[in-house]
Specification:
The protein is an alpha+beta fold and 224 residues long. The chain has 2 domains: 32-176, no CATH class; 180-224, no CATH class. 26% of the residues lie in helices and 38% in strands. Strands 1, 2, 3, 4, 5, 6, 7, 8, 9, 10, 11 and 12 form a 12-stranded mixed sheet that branches. A hairpin with a 4-residue loop joins strand 3 (53-59) and strand 4 (64-73). The longest helix is centred in the N-terminal third of the chain and has 28 residues, at 2-29. The protein is globular.
Length: 224
């Protein structure tokens, strides 16, 4: 009886190992080589986070994968991942949504990104936006990064700096509208309910320039 139990345990271990290997091979098969990029001697970061972090992706074909090592290159507006061999790869099948989990000041955080929105002022459907609030009226954020080069006075060295340009948007369908974090934007986003929203902001001394306070505003609107 003990011998049969050992054999069954061994077979289950083999099946589990094979399934795990198939899973990792499947994840690696979705990757493709990255375009050449050089971020040496760069002041500032081209990434959403400099570190690799676990996350979940949803591809355009509906396939999803979890526990992937992800990094979001905001300079190229491209999501990359690291396979079991430590290779940095792009995705062969487009990713329409991903979530990155990370630790900030000792607390667990997550950031959700989506694309597929209608082109807006030079953007394309491939551009990713961070979804700060996913309620009745949704709040999105876009950090467009680019490199500027300059040379200090009397210096032969050229400095390359990453410049951040952050904008906010709201939407109910797939069409983004710019949200400038002022009274006019509140009126545009919330319509006839804007007076009660403005009262809520005033009573709670919320700062529209802070992401956490913005999320509270959109959450209040959805709850009322």
């Amino acid at each position: 009886m003990k011998q049969i139990f050992r054999i069954l345990t061994f077979l289950m271990l083999l099946i589990s190992t094979a399934n795990a290997q198939d899973f990792f091979r499947l994840k690696e098969s979705i990757g493709m080589p990255l375009r050449t990029r050089s971020y040496t001697d760069l002041k500032g970061s081209p990434y959403f986070l400099n570190t690799w972090n676990k996350g979940i992706i949803v591809q355009a074909n509906g396939q999803s994968y979890k526990d992937m090592e992800l990094k979001y290159d905001q300079l190229e507006d491209e999501l990359i991942f690291k396979d079991q061999q430590g290779r940095e790869l792009g995705f062969a099948v487009p990713v329409k949504e991903f979530k990155i989990n990370y630790i900030l000041d000792g607390s667990p955080k997550s950031a959700l990104f989506r694309n597929g929105f209608e082109p807006f002022k030079g953007s394309t459907e491939k551009n990713y936006y961070e979804i700060l609030y996913d309620g009745a009226v949704k709040l999105a954020k876009k950090n467009v990064k680019h490199i500027e080069q300059y040379r200090e006075y009397n210096s032969a060295t050229t400095t390359k700096s990453v410049i951040d340009r952050v904008k906010y948007y709201f939407y109910t369908t797939n069409q983004l509208k710019e949200f400038k974090r002022d009274v006019k934007s509140i009126q545009l986003a919330f319509g006839e309910k804007s007076p009660s929203v403005l009262k809520y902001i005033d009573e709670n001394k919320l700062d529209l320039k802070k992401d956490d306070d913005l999320v509270k505003v959109f959450s209040f609107f959805s709850a009322n």
